[in-house]
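re the bet — no i am not wrong, look at it urself. input seq straight from the record:
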Amino acid sequence: MLKLMLIALAILFGWLSMLGYGLANVFSQPLAKKYGPAQVLFLRSFAILVILAVGAAPSFQELSHYKEVLLTLGLGALGYLPVLAFTHGIRISRLGIVAPIAGTSPLITVVLSSLVLNTQIHLLQWLAILVVIGANVAMSVDLKNWRNSSLMRLSSGIPFAFMATLGWGFFFFFLIYATRWLGPWLSAFLVEAGVTLAAGLHLLFSSQAKVPLKQAVSRPVLLNSVLICIGTVAYTVGVRRFNVSVVAALSNSTAIVSAVVASYKFHEHLTRTEKIAGATMVAGIAVISFF
């Protein structure tokens, strides 16, 4: 009974993470175009840091573990690079080009956790994970955009998408260790502190016009920050309670959330292919969750 309860909680956290990250993706592109990648990431990270500080406060005694704290801060600083690459990619290119490639990052996390941590995944779950990732990509692909893009030119956004894929794949794998060392809230807080520090240094040495820090509490930035908090904390809690490969696959299946929200908020019509891919993704998530 206890095992079933833990599995149910893990599924819940995986789905919450998917919801948080998926909604955040919908609202990130306008902010990136308005403020620029580095500026919006600094503002967003600063707001996230304040929010996470409240949840992490009971765990601050763990800050005495200096080695683990410094490693987690370093992970956050390095984690700034893939999110910067993704944000820059969607700023200069189309989401339909960048998102499909970035959506394959869970596969790296899954393979690493299987090889290094020896996480047990049934064959049916492996197939379901591949189906979910494939459907996630299929929902994001815009063939017209791909045909009109020059694949490996920086202006296409594709090289930045590959950077984000590799970076996120390794980042979410190593985040497992930080979560086990320091707990979900404190690890999330320190990772975001590293991101904030990296973004601040980037801005300091760049020629970009600086946006007042008060914009961090503007409604669009604050909403984006809250959604990222939900996604990150749900992920860190989930990987402590259940098979990390399963949680990673659920957490990063964001395309269906983004597509459904966009169809309602922006009145975008879901194509037949998107509906089929969405149904396939839901079926794959169900298999991962319950088998």
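see?? The chain is about 80% helix and 0% strand. told u. also Residues 2-290 form one domain. so pay up
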